[in-house]
Amino acid sequence: MSAALWILIIAAVLVVVGGAAFVATRSRGRDLELEPTPDERRPGTGTVTTPPAVEETPPTSSVDTAVPTEAEAAPVEVGPEVVEEAPPAEAEAPPQQLEPLVKPSFFDRLGKARTAFSGYLGGLVGRGKLSEDDWEELEEALIQADVGVATSMSLIGDVRDLAKGSGADSGEDILGLLKARMHRELEGKDRSLILDEGRTNVWLFVGVNGVGKTTTIGKVARRLVDEGHKPLLAAGDTFRAAAAEQLTTWGERAGADVVRGNEGGDPSAVIFDGVQAAAARGCDVVLADTAGRLHNKTNLMEELSKVRRVAGREPGHVSEVLLVIDATTGQNGMSQAKVFTEAVEVTGVVLTKLDGSAKGGIVFAIESELGIPVKLVGLGEKAGDLVDFDAPAFVDALFE
Amino acid sequence: MFQTLTDKFEGIFGRLGKKGRLTEEDVDEALREIRLALLEADVNLTVVRGLRDRIRARAVGEEIHKALNPAQQVVKIVNEELTASLGGETMQISFASRPPTVVLMAGLQGSGKTTTSAKLARWFKSQGRNPLMVGADLQRPAAVEQLRTLGRQIDVPVFSEPSDPVAVAAAALEEARRTGRDVLIVDTAGRLAIDEDLMEEVRRISDSVQPHYTFLVVDAMTGQDAVNTAEAFHQRLSLDGVILTKLDGDARGGAALSVKEVVGRPIAFAATGEKLEDFDLFHPDRMASRILGMGDVLTLIDKAEQVYEKEEAEEAAARMLEGQFTLDDFLEQMQQLKKMGPLGGLLSMLPGLPKELRNVNIDDRELARVEAIIKSMTPAERAEPRMIEASRRARIAKGSGTNPTQVAGLVTQFTEMQKMMKKLGGMGTKKARKDRKGDKRKGKGGSRVTGKGGVPALTGGGRVTPKGTKAGKAPLMLPGLDRIDASDLDALADELDRRR
C-alpha cells in the first residue's frame, strides 16, 4: 500500500473538516450540483443513454413532441444534402469518379496565415551584432510558435555556442545558424507510412478530442484510393454522437467501405470487425478511428491499449499508430505525445489545421525530444488537403 | 487543471518562504520564474509581459514593507492579479426582456462547439428555460446529426435545414418565437480566424439573429495562438464571453488567461468532462487559487460535502489527531473517500502535495484489499491492533484472502500513521482545539475562527475560515496549508516508506 494513499486519507479528513466551515461562509449560489462520481463517465456497452435509432428521430420520441409541427416539417437529413454545402469540387464528385486531387504545396498554404508575423524577425536580419534583447527576441519568436520554453532555450543556447565558435554575429548569420540547427534536428527521419504488402494493415488514429482524427482518416482514405490501395474505414469512435455518420460521409467521398458498430458499443469490437471485413473483402489497410480522449484519463487510455491489442490479432497487422495533434495545441502536446506513446506506441504524428495562424511548434519539441516523426500535415478541409510533412519548409515557416 | 503551473509556483514560493525578507532581487527572481511558468503554461508572451509588469509594480512598491511574511505578500499579489486577469467575478447571465435570448457559439474547428452547445442548453434547462438549439454547422459532415443526438439526450429540440447557415439561423429565430422557446443556441461551423469568407459568414449569421450573447469556445489546450484567434473573432463578432473546454485534461490552460486579457470579456463557462452535465459557470477565483498551489480545494470540498456528514468528519479528525483513531474509523474514512471518486483524481486536487505524490498512480483495488483485511478482524482487534499476534494474523490473512505479511504491513503502517497524526495533532495550536470546543458550545451559530495575524491556523479539527473570504477576496491559503505544507507531507511519506 502506497504512502500516498495514507496521506490522501489523512489529508482528506483534514480538508473536509476545514472545508466544511469554509463552505459554510461561502455563497451558496451554485447552479449545478456536481455528480457524486463525475469521473466515472463513459459507461460500457449499451449503457449510454442514446436512443437506439440514430438515423432519424421517430415522430413519437419525446424530443419531437417538444418541437411543434413546423419544425418537424423542416428537419434536416444529414447526409448527401449537407455534403452539398461542402466545397463544390468535393461534393459534386460522385464517389466512383473522383476528381484528381489538387494537392497544395506546403508553403502555399502556410503562406497566407503568416502575414501577421512576417517582419517579426525581419529587423534582426539587417542588424549587425546582436544585443541581449535581440537574443531574447529570437527566443521569444520560438516560444510564440509554441516550440516551448525549454526547447527554445536549449536551441538558442546551442546557437550561441556555435556563433561564438564560428565568429558569426550578424543577425542574418545567427538566424541562419538557428535554422540550420533546427533543420538538423529534424533531418534523417523516416516519414514514410508503412503498408506491408499482402497483409491486412491497420492504421490506428488516436488523439485528444477535437484534433481532427475523423477528418484526417477521410483524407488519408482518399489519398490511398488514389494511390490504388483499397482502404476500409472502421468507425471505432462509438462515443461521440454521430461520429460514425461523419466517417461514413467521408467513406462515401473517398469511395471506401465503412464498418460501424452501435453508438456506445465496444470500440475494440468494431475495429476487430473492420479487420475481419477487410480481410474478407481483400482490403489492404484498415483506417481505424478512435474516440478522442484526454490522455490523463487512465481508464480511457487502457481502453485504447486494448483497441491496439485487438487490432493486431490475426489477420490484423498494426503497421501505423498515428497521433493526431492540432496545430493550435500548446505545451500540452508534449504530454499528449508521451502518454499516448506509452499506451499505444505511436509511430508517427499527423499535424492538423496548420492552415490557420497557429504554427504547431510543439511538434518540433515532440520530434526532437521523443523522436516520433511527423508524417502528415493537414492544411484544410478538403480531401486533398493532406500532404507529407516537409521538415525544412516547416522550420522556415516558424520564423516567417 | 493548471496543474503544472501550480507545481511551479509551489517551487518558487517554497523558496521565497524560507527567506526572512524580500529584496528587489528576490522579486525579480520570482518574476523570472513566474514568467517561465506562465509561458510554459501557454500564456501568451505579450500577456505574460503585462502581467509581470503589473506584479512587479505592486510587489516592489511600498506594500512589500508592510509584509508580515514577504512570500505570502507576493503570493497574494500574484493571486489577485491572476484572479483579475481571469475575470474577477463569475459571469451573470441575464435574459432578454423580449424572448428568445439568443446565444451564438463560435470558434475554431474542434474546440468543442457542438458538445458545448448541448451542455449550455442543458444548463439553461436547469435554470428553468426552454432552449432551442440550431444546427448551423452545415460544413462538417454529420455535425447536425451530432447535435440532434445530443438534443435527444437532454430532451431539447434541434432546428436545422439543409439550406445555408445564415438562412437556418434566421428561420430558427422565427421558429423559436413562434413556439415560445425562450433561449436560442446557435451552433456554427468551426472556422479559422484567418478564413475571410467563413468569418464573414459568421458575421452575417450574427447580424441576422442579433445575439444577446456571443461566446467564443476555446480549447484549454490551446497554445500561443489563442490570442490571435480571440482577437479575430472579437473583431468580427464583438464577443460577450468565452467558454473554456476540455479543462478536465492536464493542460495548464494558459489560454484562459490570454484570451481573457485580449478580449476583455469574462470566461463565462467551463466544460470539465465529456458528460453533458460536466459544465458550469466559470469560477475565476478557484482557478487562480489552483494556480497558486491551493489545489482545487473548493471542488474537492463540493465533492466531499455530498458524501461526508460534517459532524462525523469533525469527530473523526479530532480523534485522529488525539491518536484515538481506530481501524474502524479508518475503514469508515476509506469508504467515504471511495464515494468521492477515483483516488488518483482526489489526490491531484489536494493542495500542498508535492508533485511526486500527486502524480502517483493509486490503484483503487488496494483499497479493497485493505478493506478486506480490516473486515476480517474482530471488533477488539480493530480497536487495539497491537493484540494481533501470529495466529490472529494467520486467521485474518485467511479471512481476507491475503497473506500474513500483508496483514502485518497494514497494522504497522496504521500504528505509524496513528503516531504521525498524534504528532501532527500536537503541532496544531492548542488554541485551535480550544476554539473548536468553544464552537461546539456555541452550537450552530458558531463563529469563524482565524489564527493569529490573519493566517489561518491548522484546522486541527476546528472550523477555520480564512479571513476576508466574505469580502470576496480569494483566500490566501487553504486552512491548514501553512502548516501541513509539502515538506511535512514529504517527511510523512518518507517516514512511512522507510517503515514499510
How many helical stretches of chain A?
Answer: 17
Largest sheet of chain A: 8 strands, mixed
- Strand-and-helix sequence of chain B, N→C? HHHHEHEHEHEHEHEHEEHHHHHHHHHHHH
End-to-end separation of chain B? 33 Å
Shape of chain A: elongated
Unreliable residue runs of chain B: 1-5, 64-68, 428-488
As an assembly, this protein is heterodimer
Protein structure class of chain B: alpha/beta
Mean pLDDT figure of chain B: 74
> What is the helix tally of chain B?
22
- SS-derived structural category of chain A: alpha/beta
> Uncertain spans of chain A, ≥5 residues at pLDDT below 50?
16-96, 111-119
Rounded Rg of chain A: 25 Å
Fraction of residues in H or I helices of chain A: 40-55%
Structural summary, described in words:
The complex is a heterodimer of chains A (400) and B (500). Chain A has 17 helices and eight strands. Chain A has 400 residues and is an alpha/beta fold. In chain A, strands 3-2-4-1-5-6-7-8 form an eight-stranded mixed sheet, with helices on both faces. The radius of gyration of chain A is 25 Å and the shape is elongated. Chain B has 500 residues and is an alpha/beta fold. In chain B, strand 2, helix 6 (143-154) and strand 3 (158-159) form a beta-alpha-beta unit. The chains are: A alpha/beta (400), B alpha/beta (500). At the A-B interface, helix 1, helix 2, helix 4, helix 8 and helix 12 of A face helix 2, helix 5, helix 6, strand 3 and helix 7 of B.
